[in-house]
Amino acid sequence: MIELSANEWLGLLTHLKKWVSNLRRAGKQRKLESKSALRDVIKAVRKTTVYARSLKQDNKASLKQESELSLLWTELSFKLDDLDLAKLAKRCHITGIYWSDPSQLDNDFLDKAEVGLADIERLAKLNLQELN
């Protein structure tokens, strides 16, 4: 067994205290980042819902809007993936693909992937509840 001097014990305890403090701070930061990303998902759902409503009313697609939605959903998928929110990240990724070119995905796949806006919002809200 190795014997430690009082100074060595003090140094070890100081290091341990700093490590625990940094770990707590990192946990809080990750929680805040997760909350922010999940709230961004809900905002993206709202933005997409408004665009879908305008499509129904005007029957005019906007490639500019669809490009923005594709990038928005894709960026969200990256952010969520970085935070280990894989299930929601995958759905956002698929939604990004859909808005870039809907013909890439068939309706059966979309139904099974549960990428409806209501499904995505529900999952984001469930994840938010778990964080609170």
Distance between the termini: 45 Å
Computed Rg = 22 Å
The residue fraction in helices comes out at over 70%
> Can you give the mean pLDDT?
89
Which term fits the overall shape? elongated
Number of strands: 0
- Number of helix segments? 5
How many strands, what sense, and barrel or not for the largest sheet?
none
Helices and strands, in order, run as: HHHHH
Unreliable sequence segments: none
- Secondary-structure-derived class: mainly alpha
* Strand fraction: under 5%
Helix and strand arrangement:
Blueprint: H1 6-58, H2 63-82, H3 86-100, H4 107-113, H5 117-131
Helix pairs in contact: 1-2, 1-5, 2-3
Question: Would you kindly provide a brief summary of this structure?
Answer:
The protein has 132 residues and is mostly helical. It has helices spanning 6-58, 63-82, 86-100, 107-113, 117-131.
Provide keyphrases for this structure.
elongated, mainly alpha, 132 residues
Description:
- The chain has 132 residues and is mostly helical.
- The protein has 5 helices and no strands.
- α1 runs antiparallel to α5.
- The relative contact order is 0.12.
